Amino acid sequence: MELTEAIAQFAAGVKPEGIPAEVLQRAKRHVLDTLGVALAASNSTIAGILQQVVRGSSEGESSLWTGSGRSGAGDAAWLNGTIAHALDFDDGGVGPTPMHPSAPVLPAVLALAEARDLSGMDALCAYIVGVEIECKLANLVSLKHYERGWHTTAVLGTLGSAAASSRLLGLSSEKICHALGIAASMAGGLRTNFGSMTKPLHAGQAARNGLVAALLAEKGFTANRAALGADKGMVRVFELGDSVTGTEISTRLGRPFHFASPGVSIKRFPSCTSTHLTLEAILALRESHEFLPEQVEKIECAIHPLDYGVLLRPEGIQSPEQARFSAEFVLAAATLDGEVSLRHFNSAFIQRADVQGLMKRIHVYVPSDPAGLESTGNRFSLVAVHLSDGRVISHRATTIRGHPPLLLSDAEVDRKFLDCVVPVLAPQRAQIVLQALHGIDTAPCVADILSPFGKKL
Fold first, then answer.
1. Which of 208, 136, 214, 207 is nearest to 181 (CA)?
2. What's the Cα-to-Cα distance from 445 to each of 72, 130, 164, 224, rounded to whole Å?
3. What is the rounded distance in angstroms from the CA atom of residue 213 to the CA atom of residue 233?
4. What whole-number distance in Å separates Cα of residue 90 and Cα of residue 153?
5. To the nearest whole number, what is the mean pLDDT of the chain?
6. Cα–Cα dist 418/425, whole Å
7. Strand (E) positions, 208-313?
8. What Rg value do the Cα atoms of the chain yield, rounded?
9. What is the DSSP letter of 101?
């Protein structure tokens, strides 16, 4: 079976009653997380610029999560998808080829469900379908695709959004093939834009393009029905690899759902995932050893080549977007404050003299023989802190809390949601929104939950 057809048949065939309760529960956890980080970004500079382009009104199909009104579903998916990824605090880490699954899919699904007056369970089922397709593809895609410079979230996210939107519209597998083919010609995003405002725009573009592709296919718009696996199709053009075939994907989709095993990560830190092992190491040292920031003479940090290739170098780190891709910055922040949270990613903190000074004394590198620390197939971070009293303390981290199998609990996700949302909403209102989202699967109409998001709360 050709790849496009295999994905389309899966998307068309999933029924709510066929989705295990564990998958539904974990999906709800990620809905909550994605909306929380999007609301945390709703007052950001990125959100302010987007609102000047997509001007909300009291009329429109779908809510803008910036609280600036309503708009057409496509523009809502675009804006909401961008702010969902704006803080790099959204979920990810689903396979050898890194990507963020929810930001390209959930905003499209919720915008379309709101526009069509569909239920929470309809939306949740479609969202699960989109994330499942993205994650299973990410586990098959060759790293050559990522190393070439493609942003996998933008590429696979467009397919996930198209499949989820098509499933929500109840399209036949034949029409879903066309939607995927249309989406394949709309996909793209360059890693060179990491550390800039354009990186989160990739998620918004994927959300809107997938939604538009499904709407076009619904009305009879056509594409090559084998656009993914065909000669000069998406797999070859984007160098996704020989493992990405219809036969291979059909044996994996829903067997089991990725939300069930191994699971999808939820971030504890609002920075690029490639900084998280480094954060785990320095925070472990802060907890296990007594030292003051002023005692730190220098910090050496060995990391995996894949993580090193993603991150920015320390020179010129000035903006929040750049800081989220700087191991030197997060190491400095964690050393000085004992944590890394949203409050650290602002120009005033980034440009503080003690932060910039400590960053200059941090050396991040790839060891000459990474296999001596950890196999090249597994990521790691070895942090060594040199202190003024002559001590050198070190810690090697190879696991990240929030990544499979160390998933966050429901209570931990709730706390993260409130930490993100309370500064934007009043505490009482944040609790009301939290409880409403917990019951999204029983909501007869998604608009009942989302309509307040279009208003300043």
1. 214
2. 18, 20, 18, 35
3. 17
4. 12
5. 94
6. 9
7. 296-303
8. 22
9. -
